[in-house]
Amino acid sequence: MSIGVALVSDEETTSEMGIAHLLRNGCFSKEDVIIVPDWASPKGSRIWVAEKGLLWLRFDVAGRSVHGSTPHKGINALRVSARFMTDLVGTLEKEFSAEDPMFSPPFSTFEPTKASATVDNVNTIPGAYSFCLDIRLLPSADMDRVVKVSEEVARRHSEESGARITVTEIQRNVSGRPSSTSSKGYRALSRAVEEVVGAVPMASGTGAATCANFFRLAGLDAYGWQHGGGTLHGPNEHVVLKNLMTDCKVFTALYYDLCLRG
C-alpha cells in the first residue's frame, strides 16, 4: 500500500478549496483507508465515525438610535436582541431536545458566539446590533426546520418590539452517514490505538465539523482520531508534544498493520 497525505488550509472555513476540491477531482476512492487526525479525545479513547451537522446563522436587529436620556423615542436594538436571543435559544433547545448517546454532548447545541459592537459612547441608545449562533445538530434534526423556527421567533419579536430582525444563513454542513466500524481501516486503527495506548477505543460521534464529514457525504468511510490534550480554541491554544509522539506511534502501528499484516 502507498501512503498519501493531504494538507489543506481551509478546514476552519468551508473546506471548499481543500478536501471538497480534492474529492470533486477524484483524488480518493473506496479502496482508500481514510484517517483524519483531528482533536478526538484525551488519551485517544474515541474514534470519530459520525458528526453532527453544522449550521451558522446571523441575526441582524435594526432599531432606532436616540439619546440615552430619551429611550422612549427610539428602539434599543441591544435590549431587543437580549430578549430575542434568550427566547430564541430556549425555543430551539426545547424544539430540538432529542439525544443520542453516541455523541458528546449527546444533544444538539445552539450557542451565541460572534456579536457586533454597539456604540462608542454610553449615552446613546444603539440602533443596530447583530449576533450569530453556532448550531451543532444531531443527524436526526432537520436543518430547514431550525431555520424556520428561528425566523418565526424573529418575526414575533419584530412585531412586539418594532425592530426589524433579519435571519441570514452563513454556512451549513449536513451530516454524512456514519462510517462503518467493520471496515479494514477501522479495525486496523482500533488495533493500533489499543497497541500504543493500552485501551480499546470507542466508536463515537462528534460535534466538531471536520474534513471527515466530506468523505462520508461522498460515500466513503473516514475516521477521526488523535490523542487529544491541551486547549482547543481557548486561551494559549496548544497541543502537548508528548501526545503528538503518541500520534506518531499510532500511525506507525497503523501503517505496519495495513501494509505488512494485511
Describe this structure in words.
This protein has 262 residues and is an alpha/beta fold. The protein has two domains: 19-51 and 176-261, 3-Layer(aba) Sandwich (Aminopeptidase), CATH 3.40.630; 53-173, Alpha-Beta Plaits (2-Layer Sandwich), CATH 3.30.70.360. The chain contains six helices and eleven strands. It has helices at 19-24, 77-95, 143-161, 184-197, 212-217, 241-261; strands at residues 35-36, 41-42, 46-51, 53-62, 103-104, 109-115, 128-137, 164-173, 202-206, 223-224, 227-228. Helix 2 (77-95) runs antiparallel to helix 3 and helix 4 (184-197) crosses helix 6 (241-261). The longest helix is centred in the last third of the chain and has 21 residues, at 241-261.
